Amino acid sequence: MNKKCPKCGYVIQEGDRFCINCGYKISQNNKEKLKSMKNEKTEDNSTKSKKQPIKRMKELEATSSDLHSKQPQEFWKKKSFLGIVVAIALVVLVIRANILPKGYSNPNDVMEYCMRRNVMLNQFQKLGDYRDEFADAFGTDNEDTDYHMLLQNKKTKRYVFKYSYDGESIPSYVVASKGHGVYSLNITPVKKSHIASIYKYDVTQEYMDKHFPSDSYVGYSNDDIFDMDVDLDNHISKTSTSGKTWVSYDKSEDE
Q1: Which of 22, 88, 192, 220 is deepest in the core (most CB within 10 A)?
Q2: Residues 173/188, Cβ–Cβ less than 8 Å
Q3: How many Å apart are CA 212 and CA 163, to the nearest integer?
Q4: Is beta strand 236-242 parallel, antiparallel or unpaired with respect to 214-220?
Q5: pTM of whole model > 0.90?
């Protein structure tokens, strides 16, 4: 393809090294342009080759740092979740261990339940045939409605107390009977278990205040107990004595 001389505009032929009109050196000019273009391309390629690895490296570093930062976050999220679950489970166990069952709300229902499970209270019914002799022997008024006291829990205003026996926590009903300056306690577990009842005698007021804090009670007289007609639950006959404590067991729980 024919070109014009850049100096005078005269048409020159392909391959001419000089313009035949003005003598302009064509080949030198072309070489410089070609060299210049070659240099520009080389610089561009060099720049790209320098920039691209750096850019790629930065991208990889950023991605790597994201992965490293996400992994601990995910790890600690899982750990935190497991920690929360364990904490909740522990709280539930502690609450369950310390919450008392409500038990019966009617005091007569409590007394009937205690008569079914408590050997000493149940046997007291039989003395009804000898109530006059009993009053003479113990100097008691069989009509005194404060003789047997179904204690009411000071905190809950119900009839269940937290009682510990032989290292075992036993929510129980407590009936305190008067004596000569002391009390006897008929302690009956609220839930049926291998321990049917516990009887303690010669108990002081201080002991009662410490273990069974109560502001009020429901009173029953000897006559009230004498006149109750409640059969003892089956299998409750195994009894052991230890000092001033009698413990009755429900043998059916051992079968």
Answers
A1: 220
A2: yes
A3: 8
A4: unpaired
A5: no
